[in-house]
Amino acid sequence: MPTANTLFALIAVGSADALRKAIGTKYPGESLEVVPGQWLVARPSTTTTLDISKELGITDGTVSGAIVLSVSSYYGRSSPSTWEWIAAKTGTAPNATQAG
Question: HSE (CB half, 13 Å, CA atoms) of 87?
C-alpha cells in the first residue's frame, strides 16, 4: 500500500520568487501555488514541517522566510481545480465549496 501524503501550506514572508524556485526544484509536481506567495505541498506522511523548512532553505534563511503549516483538515471556497489537486495528492474526497 502506498504511503499516505500530508498536506502542507506555505506562506512566504520573504522573497516569494526565491521560495517559488526552491519549491519547484525540490517538489516538482507536488506543489500548487494557490495565490502568489502561498503554496500547498504534498509530501509523504512521515515528513514534518521542520523537514520542509530545512529542505527549502527557510530554517537557515538561505532562500526565504516562510511559515510552514501541516494541514490536518481543510474547508473553504476555491476553484474546483484546487480541490481536485488536494484530493489527488492526499487520496481524500474533495471537502469544500467549489467556486468556478
Answer: 12
Ranges of each domain in the chain: 5-98
| Res 92: pLDDT | 75
What is the rounded distance in angstroms from the CA atom of residue 6 to the CA atom of residue 27?
Answer: 13
- Please report how many Cα atoms fall inside a 13 Å half-sphere around the Cα of residue 80, on the Cβ side: 1
* Entry pTM: 0.88
What CATH number is given for 5-98 in this structure?
3.30.70
- pLDDT tens digit sequence for 43-70: 999 999 999 999 999 999 999 999 999 9
CA dihedral 23, 63, 54, 85 (to 10 degrees): -20
